[in-house]
Amino acid sequence: MLPRLIRLSRSAPKDRPLAWDRYWAGITATGPGGEVLWDAGSDHEFLGYRDLILRHLDPALPVVDVGCGHGSFTRALAAHFPQAIGVDISAHAAALAAAEPGNPGNVSFEVRDMTAPGAGAGLVAGPANVFVRGVLHVLSPADQAALAENLRVLAGGRGTVFLAETNFQGNPVEYVTHLGATQRSIPAPLERAIRGLPMPGHFGPKERSRALPPASWELLEEGAAAIETNPVTGVEGQSRVPGYVAALRPRRPSGETPKHAGEDAPLTGSS
Questions:
Q1: For residue 67, which of 203, 217, 235, 215 has the smallest C-alpha distance?
Q2: How far apart are the C-alpha atoms of 252 and 230, rounded to whole Å?
Q3: How far, in Å, CA of 216 to CA of 67, rounded?
Q4: CA distances from 239 to 3, 187, 201, 206, 270 (A)
Q5: Which pLDDT does position 256 carry in this prediction?
Q6: What is the pLDDT of residue 165?
Q7: Are 126 and 57 in contact (CB under 8 A)?
Q8: Of 33, 80, 150, 205, which sees the most CB atoms within 10 A?
């Protein structure tokens, strides 16, 4: 299978923004039975995160969904925060998200490369919570560090960052086999991702500690999770990938005092 994977992946553009925009430009169906590999078509995965999110993210602040894709998680977050902003590197993804049915009035979508210097500035007026699902594991260490800096700017003195990433420890052949690939066939959503997108890695506690170091980030909670994908095979377990979740808050530099009243008040949850 490895030679076939190598052959398929050769067609993926080396330019990351181009790769993602071409991928989303070709998507015509989302949700159950759709073409997006990591779209399970249900809210089951989000409901698994909800309690952790509500324990640590300030419900009075807006939330920014980084790498929003077609916006399914942005829409879910909008039920718990006054404003939900989906951000994606792909203009086609943002346009698709805006056109999806069921967008509530407090949802909006923007096109930004959140690894670009200064991309976190001006997105919201003041501190925000940040939701990141399935982004860090496809970035190089340098881009992970650049994203972390923009997350720090977005969170400011009150916001919290929640991240959920795939943390599959096997090699690429084992990974695609887990998702349903065989010697004879590869499910269409999986083959589309292999052909068009960067090869994914994994992201767990070790990678989090490097990209968001303890000296700069306070770890509030972490744990294992299941990242749900398009149930393309119907085989129990093949649409779930071992994952990692964490909630973090930027540390203030020593001696820094909050600029706004209430910034040091404890975060509260809601239901």
A1: 203
A2: 40
A3: 23
A4: 24, 12, 17, 25, 30
A5: 56
A6: 98
A7: no
A8: 150
Contact 138, 108 (CB under 8 A): no
The first and second tokens of residue 207, run together, are 């990678």
Q: What is the per-residue pLDDT across 39-48, written as a single tens digit (0 to 9) for each?
A: 999 999 999 9
Predicted local confidence at residue 126, as pLDDT = 93
- Give yes or no for residue 65 having a pLDDT over 50: yes
pLDDT in tens, 84-116: 999 999 999 999 999 999 999 999 999 999 999
| Rounded CA separation 189/4 (Å) | 16
Task: Tell me which amino acid residue 43 is.
Answer: D
Would the CA dihedral through 191, 193, 195, 199 be positive or negative? negative
In 10 A of CB 28, how many CB atoms?
8
Write down the pLDDT at residue 167: 96
* pTM to 2 decimal places: 0.90
As given in the structure block, the two tokens for residue 271 are: 């239901």
